[in-house]
Predict the 3D structure of the following.
Amino acid sequence: MQLTARHQEYWSKNLRITALLLGIWFFVTFVLVFYARSLTFNFFGWPFSFWVAGQGALVVYCLIIWYYAHYMNKLDIEYGVSEGEE
Amino acid sequence: MFGNEKQSKSEFKQGLNKVYTWYTGGFVSFVILLAILEQVGMPKAWIGYSFLAATVLLYAGIGVMSRTNDAAEYYVAGRRVPALYNGMATGADWMSAASFIGMAGTLYLTGYGGLAFILGWTGGYCLVALFLAPYLRKFGQFTIPDFLGARYEGHLPRLIGVFAAILCSFTYVVAQIYGVGLITARLTGLAFEVGIFAGLIGILVCSFLGGMRAVTWTQVAQYIILIIAYLLPVVWLSVKHTGVPIPQAVYGYTLEKVSAKEEQLLKDPKELEVRGIYKARSDAAVEKLKDVPGSMAADKAAAEKKVEELKASNGRLADIQAAEAAVGKLPKDEAAARAAYTAARTSNAARSNPPVRHAEPFPGKDDAARDIARKNFMALVFCLMIGTAALPHILMRYYTVPSVREARESVSWSLFFIFLLYFTAPALAVLAKFEVYTVLVNTPFANLPEWIARWSSVDASLLSVVDVNKDGILQLAEISIGGDIIVLATPEIGGLPYVVSGMVAAGGLAAALSTADGLLLTIANALSHDLYYKVLDPNASTARRVLVSKMLLLVVALAAAYVAAQKPADILFLVSAAFSFAAAAFFPALTLGIFWKRANKWGASLGMVAGLGVTFYYMVTTQPWLYKLTHGVAITPEIAKANTWWDIAPISAGLFGVPLGFAVIIIVSLLTKAPGRDIQDLVEHVRYPSLDGKTSAGSAAH
């Protein structure tokens, strides 16, 4: 079937949010870990880099996924591509 | 109870809420009842039996209640699992023996280095959510090779997918069954091999009778047990040490104390003495390796001389017998001697190392070593993340939710439920370490707690204490502890009642069984649905397909149990190998299939083969166990170093496979013909939840 301009726009919005969230994921995972040896200031008892890898990053991952689901489910409705109720 | 077509969605969900609330209450009461019985004197063995029997019967009961022969029910649980429950089931499916038993142990042994597993096994869900789950749900078939077959037009990509799915799931399931054997042996005192087959019954009765439907509802039940079992001892220890019941928030202060104690142990003269003895033993082994036949003769002479001396001086009978046994145990030929000396060199060298500083990222003797450690840490995180987003038994779970919308929410729930355990594991490792460093170290050998003897008797490689410097006091360097027992032994290390130990073991069993269920189902489905039905006999009736699947399930389970009984490598390596395989085989083909319309059959087929091939090749040439299996001789540090690329450890072999897979798919696709209009339409179909406002029911009847 032929896609309309709105369909294209929906997909590019999807790609944009995916790229943005992936950027955050990359920063938390690889950039912070790369500099782990320098980020060892005390953070409530933990060295900061230990806390990030053990706790902080996990919270960020949860938020990324939650936000994506929330954003996309809204976008589906906005662009009329959501599934109808059973 | 577990749903039928007539119920509405909300009725179904309310029913589930009720069932599982009652169930959780029932489990808690069961534990409390056993705790009371323990106080009035019920023997420990009975507590172990009760946990084993009660949980396995429960899973079997759910299996019987959800038995089915309907294809949509058998393969994808009728596609009506609500997001929340699919999240729980995914959590149990996901958290294997390695997560439950192995991970906190790895953290205990390697400190910061072990956090790679925490990061990798949670961060991978971001990739599942962003790149795969919603699209696969929209596609809505039964298996992952189904997607490859449809998107890349033909049997070839499907069959490569089947092969890869079986390879990684089988590697993974062996590790689970090994875990089951370990726990059953511990809970009941049965032999390890018997434990394996006892556990196998628990796995089979469920997936065999009800396929995905039974596995889903059992996994939810198993999740509830495993999460309670994991959290309770940690909370208890936390209250004991800090007075706060939220270990995740306060173990930073315990970590500070552990770090202070480490500095002390690093300089302690007694510790240095013990490590020096191990260093000397390792050096002696290196000397022996220079002249193997000569060393064999010298060893034999020394051992015989010891027997003579003991006899001459009227030594104790037990000593004489031990010395004679030592003569009998000497290696028989040169190859065996070489292997024994090499093993002695490696193990003693490892034990002569000072303890790692728990909180230090990438420890190393100089900057070069630290850079290698960092590189490997990041490579491992990369492989585990990509592997997470490519394991067929996890991706398959997102076929079972009712809609794309719920698939997205379901990933969110999945990670939340997994997060609860992973967020806690670092705390558990630190608290256990604190106990060992402060309570166990410097205890006279005569006063050691009795759990040490009990665990050493299960398997000496898991725990052994030897008074190496003969001072009668336990030094840290004299403890050899396997990562796999940290979680199982934590209640005992912390001095908690035995009922908690039983519950933790039941939790570990739930983790291993639930993952094994999901994996066996993946393998059996790949064979019965993709190979038998789609390729060999497309006219097979539904009932026949389900029957074939059940038979295959049995065969695969027995084969996996047989391999596990050989005690191949450690759990964590097997599991990580599965991740590298899955990452290299599936991730490039699946994501490009959705995000790049130009990817075609030849690109995907060759890309999968290339990715998998290079990953496998790298492991075979660098991993000790695989090297010995394929080359017939043990690997030496020299060979390993020569075969290693860019200092990457074999566990992260996927680091080479994934980029190669992407590159080959892109290059070959561009060199060959673009896929046709119908494939472009399929890609558009999966990209939009609905192009016409209707629910994507999937082809439930298919």
